[in-house]
Write a structure and sequence with these properties.
Strand order of the largest sheet: 1-2
Largest sheet: 2 strands, antiparallel
Number of strands: 4
Order of helices and strands: EEEE
Strand content: 25-35%
Number of helices: 0
Length: 60
């Protein structure tokens, strides 16, 4: 028996999730982490705002 799978590609299953933000109080301030979307990859940068004021000096 010969099984040939040429031309078949795995499809990525994407859930419908919004961006999730986690903020955890730490000794030095607040640790921020967030969920990336499936279409976002390396090379994206972000600015972080508190009460409408940018709080980072350069994009993360």
């Amino acid at each position: 028996m010969v099984l040939s799978l040429n031309g078949l590609h795995a499809q990525r299953h994407m859930e419908t999730l919004d961006r999730g933000l986690i903020a955890v109080e730490s000794g030095d301030g607040v640790f921020l982490s967030w969920r990336l979307q499936g279409y976002e990859w390396y090379g994206y940068t972000y600015n972080v705002y508190r009460d409408g004021v940018k709080i980072n000096t350069e994009p993360w």
